[in-house]
Structures are given as C-alpha cells and as structure tokens.
Amino acid sequence: MTDPASPDHAEPWYLLGAGNMGLLAAHYLRRAGFTVIALRRDATPTLERTLILPSGEAVLLHLDCQPIVRAGLARERERSSRQDPRALSDDSTSSVSGIPPAGSAGLSRAGPAPTRPAPTIRRLVVACKAPFSASALAGLPLAADATVLRLQNGLGSLDGLLPDGARMIEVVSASAVKCDGDAHRVVAENDTWMGDCVAAGVPAAGGPAAGDPAAGGPAAGAAKPPPWFAALAGHWPKLHWPDDFRHRQWRKLIGNAVINALTGLHDVANGRVFQDPALASEAEQLAREADRVFTALDPTWPGDSLAGVRALAEATAGNTSSMRADMQAGALTEIDAINGWLLRQADVLGIDLPTHRRIVAAVQARHPEL
Ligand code: KPL
User: What pLDDT, in 10s, does the model give residues 144-183?
Assistant: First the structure.
C-alpha cells in the first residue's frame, strides 16, 4: 500500500512545533514512508526524541532539522552568496525575530546562522501552540500552493497567515500524549479526523449557505482527501476523513471551551468540572452559549452539546487539561483560539456570550507579561 519510492513520497513534510502532538504526527508520517524535517530556530542538525507507544514500545524518533530562514532573507542570502560566497557563513540571521519562547512550541531560541538557502516548503505540519502561530510562520518560505496540516487546539489560528493558494487541512485528534521525563508517552491512541478548512458560515460540501461567513479565513476547500491521505491512514491508527468533519471539529472546540477554560482557571483535573456544582453550572452555560453560535452558523448543528462535554470530562477525569498545564507553568494559553474564536463569531452574528467573555478575561488576566 505504501510505496516510499512513489513521487508522492518525494516531497518532505516540515514540522513546526516538535511538542507532544507534533512528534506523534511525525512518527505516523515516518511510518508511512514520508520524510519529516523539523524546522528549528537554531542550527541543531538533528532532533532525537523518544515516543512511548500505548503498547509500551519505545520509538526513537530521529528527525533531520532545517533552520528557519525567512523567505525574504533566504532570497537575500542566496543573492549575496552569488556575489560574495562568505555571505552564507555570516551570523546575521541570529537576530531573526518572532521566535516562540524556548520549549513552548518545541522550538529553540535563535542560535548560529543557518548556512544553506531555505528550500521552499510545500508540505507543512503546524503543531506549535496556537498563540505562537503568527510568529512561527512569519516569513516561512511556503509555496503558494503549499499543503498545511493544522494540528492545534482552537480555530482560526492560521487565518490570514497562509498564502491564498494554500490548502489548509484541519486535524482534530482525540489522542493524548504527555511528557514523561525526557520521553513523550502516548497515553491514548484515539480517533483523529482530517478535513479541509472551511470558513465558518460557509457550507462545508456544497450544501446551502448557512449563517454569515463570519470568520474570514480560507474559503471552502475540496472535499476529497489528498492523494497522500490513503498512505498515511494505513499507518496512523484510527485516522479518518469524515463527511461531517466540521461538526466533529466544533464538538472538539466546545469540549475545549468548557473543560480547558474551567480546569485552567480553577486549577482542577478534568473530572472535577462536573463534580463541583458551581463549575458544573458554569459548564452548562458555556456549552449552551457555544451551541447558540454553532446553531446560528449552521442550522443542522444538533445543539445540546453538554452531554458530550460531560462524557469527555468523565473519560479524561484524571487529566490535567492543556490549559491548566499552561497556567501552572505560567505560559500563554490557547484561550484566544478556543473561547476567543467563539466570541469573534458571536460578535459578527450579534450574539452575546457573557460567560465566555468573562472566562476569557479571567484567563487572560493571568497571562504572563509578554
Ligand atoms: O483536549 C483536551 C486538552 O486538554 O487540551 C482535553 C480533551 C480537555 C483533555 O484534557
């Protein structure tokens, strides 16, 4: 099924954000025969990470790295090197700005200057945390028709950041990977869904228009999976390309909008959200408000998401949500891409979301100074 010699395998995948989920994606891509290159801010030539699979098997991931060189800078360096070969060995790129904090997105702070011109990136996995997307992507030498897999919580974090002709594929995963000492432990290998990015309010697959095209972002993409998908699905357990992708994505967003925000703010495990009557009541309001937005965007949205959120909280009862972990670490959270995205939709639709407004303000009030 997988033919690593096929032309489709010749094009490497670049990885932006070698954290837990990025490494899991890299592992599946590698297993499917694709080359994966980690993008780095420094000149580290290779990245070695251990991934522990649910079976207990430890996989040593050895990824080649590519230093990030801004598109304009890459052209400039190429031009100067033609005029003066010494130009490629100078140190000027160490002042490149917009670098996510070390460790936050699996990227390091700027180091010595890269010495090769940057290749054009045609396939990219964006797995850095949502708030770092703009700085991580700024000036990357992306091909005009690049394929980008967005493996991040929340929605809209890449809006306006990709070339107009890029194909952005959203990845929604119920799998979970945790840091375990120096290793990355896959604690749950659950369903993962992929689908083309469709702007909110735009019909997903040629259906009637619903609501207002509120979010901006790329227009509805092709509904069919790209050619490489079948090869990848043979090696990425429970990977699907569903027809109702958008609803699955929205269900995940509601789960995050309720559980992450409440567990982060109150510093509790996921299960506590429905055990504590005050939190349970907040959860109910958050879910109800989110349902109003999704129903306005798409009248076929079933609404009544609370039961699903409760089931998710119970299934992950002992977990520390990613937002709680961020807040414990004093890091920036993904609140803007999750609840903030809902607020932006609601704004355009003329809907008030008082509980989301309050919770976004409360979480942001705890953000570190930038
Ligand atoms: O996706 C999650 C997260 O923590 O980001 C949940 C589902 C809430 C599990 O903790």
Answer: 999 999 999 999 999 999 999 999 999 999 999 999 999 9
Is the Cβ atom of 270 under 6 angstroms away from ligand 1? Answer: yes
52 half-sphere exposure, CB direction, 13 A CA radius: 10
Ligand 1 close to Cβ of residue 319 (< 6 A): yes
Strand blocks (E) in the chain: 13-16, 36-40, 46-52, 58-67, 121-126, 142-150, 167-173, 176-180, 183-188, 192-196, 239-240
Specify the length of the chain in residues: 370
> pLDDT by residue (tens digit) across 105-149?
333 333 444 455 678 999 999 999 999 999 999 989 999 999 999
| Confidence class for position 370, pLDDT limits 50, 70, 90 | low
Residue nearest to atom 4 of ligand 1 (CA): 321
Q: Is the pLDDT of residue 82 over 60?
A: no
Which whole number is the average pLDDT over 180-196?
95
Ligand 1 pocket residue status of 337, Cβ below 6 Å: no
CB 183 within 8 Å of CB 51: yes
- C-alpha separations of 114 from 85, 123, 229 in Å: 14, 21, 32
Backbone φ and ψ for 87, nearest 5 degrees, come out as: -60, -30
In angstroms, the CA 175 to CA 172 distance is: 9
Does residue 152 line the site of ligand 1, with CB under 6 A?
no
Say if CB 16 and CB 36 are below 8 A apart.
Answer: no
